[in-house]
Every structure is written in C-alpha cells, then in structure tokens.
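Input set for joint prediction.
Command: fold jointly, output tokens.
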Amino acid sequence: MEKLIEKIEKGSMPTHDEIVQLLALQGESALLLHRAAHRVKRKILGNKVFLRGLVEFSNVCRCDCLYCGIRKSNEKVARYTLSDAEILENARFAIDHGYGAVVLQSGERNDENFVKRVAEIVSGIKKISADVGITLSCGEETPDTYRLWRESGAERYLLRIETSDAALFQQIHDEKANYQRRRRSLDDLREAGFTVGSGVMIGLPGQTLDQLATDLEFFRDQDLDMIGMGPFLAHGDTPLGKRYPDTEEIKQKRLLLALNMIAVTRLMLRDVNIAAATSLQAISPADGRQRGILAGANVIMPNLGEAAKKRNYRLYDNKPDIDENAKNARLELEKSLQKIGEIIAYRESGTPLHYLKRQ
Ligand code: SAH
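tokens >
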C-alpha cells in the first residue's frame, strides 16, 4: 500500500480498483494516505488556507430531497429569508474581516423575484468590494438565470451532483429530481462562464466504495475546479434520516471515509480547491475541518451570522451553530491552523489554480 500511495503522490493516476483500495484504508495506512495528500497540497498550493464567509440566506425550497432537513415537505421548519440589507451586512462583515470570498447559499427557488433579487444582491456586494470573490450555491436554474447571475458579478457556483450514480441519485431524491438534468446544469454553469464546483455526500445508505471511486473519476472527467463534499448525516425529520438513523459508530466511519475521499481527490486532481466541509465539523466539532486540511483540503467556509444563529438552516442533525465570527472563534481557528503549519490567506479571493491554468 505504501508503494501505491508513493506512486500516486508522484503524479501517476490510480486505476479504479486502486481508488477503491485507497478509500478502504483505515488506521495507520489511512494516515499515510492523508499525509501524502497534504504534502501534495503544500507543494502545489502552499501552506495557505482560503476562507469563504458562508451566508445561508434562505431556507425556502421547492425541492424535496429525501435527506435534506429544509426539504419542502418538512413542516417543522420555520422558513426564513434574510433581507437584502441583512445579506449585504453579512457580506460587509466578511469583507471587513479579510475573508477573500463569500458564498451565498439557499434553498432552491426559480421564481422571477428570487432570480432578480439574487442578481441585485450580487452586484450590491461587488459595489462594496470589487475584489471579493462571490460563489453562489442556489441549486438548479435555467441557463438564462445562470448567465444573469454570472453577468451580475458572481464568479463561482457550487452545485453538488450528490452522487454520480444515476440509480442512487434517484433513490435519495423525490421523483421530480432528475440526474441528467443535474448533469446538464453543471454544463450550463460552465457555459455561463462560472468556475464550477461540485461534490457528493459520503456514506449514503447503500453507497459502495465502488460508487465513490466513480464519483472521483466523475470529478476528474468533468474537469471541475472546486470540490465540496462531506459525510451524509441523518436528519430526523426526513424520510432518509428516519429510515437510517445515525449511530456514533456510523458517523466515525463516515468521517474517516470523507477524509479518505478528500485525500484521494487531492492526489488525483492536484490543483483544485477542496473544501473542508461543515459536516466534518458536525461529526468532530473540535478538529473536523483541521483534519480535512491535513487530508489535503485548502478551503474553510465559516458560517456568517444570522441564519446560523436562528438554527433554521438545519440540513442535518447536530449542525454546528456556534458564532464562528466572534473574535474568539476566529482567533481559535487561526491558532489551530497555525499549529498544523497552515496560515489563513486573508484578503485573497483564492481563485482555483486549476481554473487559472485552463484560461
Ligand atoms: N439548494 C442548494 C444548496 C443547499 S444544500 C443546492 O441544491 O445546491 C447544500 C448541500 O448540503 C447539498 O448539496 C447536500 O450535499 C448537503 N446536504 C443536505 N442534506 C444533507 C445531509 N442530511 N447530510 C449531509 N449533507 C447534506
């Protein structure tokens, strides 16, 4: 196994079977894998970590994904939408505190009002700072909407494929969701000129290592610039969460599997941005994201303000909702990264190297 890791660290592309073997690693050999991926991150991207301020600006959603806490049919959720002023205030906070980019995330809506508002908010943020990077994560929209949002100033878009396996995709979504349409949306985003990110949930009920290996090949073949993926976590008010409740043991397994996925992604894709997702932190509050960095990730997305506090943007149970922007929390994060030899790249928007090279 050491030989295989060494070979891939040097840049040779693993076969499908080798990817499966790497994803299955545990204990000391998993650590060897993570360290190799972290070295590749260091070598190609340096010891920098980019920060993106995450604004979860609305939990109103027209979709009914079987795993997601803010799905349309979940009547227990108090729905909210932040005002333009609140969103701009969050963005201003991020800019003032040196976050190089903001991510605006919400449930999915495609009515004209929403589409127009998002465009206006994006240009509003660009008026505060022309340099701050803006990433949108608002789901599937029409090519026209993607173009409008791109023209209003957003450079990046995150849309997870959730799983690249068409059958599993259908199993975890309601009948209105469509795998081919999701794939087309990724193409539409690229055509609209976005830097495109995608990703999957890791440890879904019934998901195999073979499918996860195919997910990694999908990332590579789609030539993605950004990868955001994290462990699946049950939400008690969703069909999937009710049917497959989490245990501590399952969560720890998924955490390790997620770290292995991050590591193999770094080894295969080299120069992309990889986020250490919030769901890592949900399983391991003290060090989940740091472990993500140590397995090859280079982006952290602290949650900004209001929405997190209100607890209503709860995609899964035990989602961390501490105030990550309180001065203490920021200094803690900085210190914990320093301990592992990483520094926060303040005021850098952090365009993925992979994207820059393609231009
Ligand atoms: N509506 C937007 C963004 C909101 S959801 C969109 O569709 O892109 C953002 C991500 O949270 C989803 O893509 C999904 O991968 C993740 N997520 C949702 N429910 C989850 C759960 N129960 N466990 C882990 N991740 C979850």
